[in-house]
Amino acid sequence: MFKEIIISMRPKQWYKNLVLFAGILFFLNFFNIHMWITALFSFIIFCIVSGSEYIINNIMDNEADKIHIKNATFQ
Hints:
Number of helices: 4
Shape: elongated
Largest sheet: none
Low-confidence stretches: none
Number of strands: 0
Radius of gyration: 18 Å
């Protein structure tokens, strides 16, 4: 069940959250450990929140998705 939850959170989309590290790179704060820790925790939280939204969307749109799948197979 844990594996299915992780798959439902669409981890392939999480790379977009790497933009959180842009501030460290653009301001050349490579050796500021506090900024790296903050960015890392922010990245983790963003991944959890966005993944949770995918799960909520899957639950809310379950019936509409079933109709969409049926229509897609007849085309």
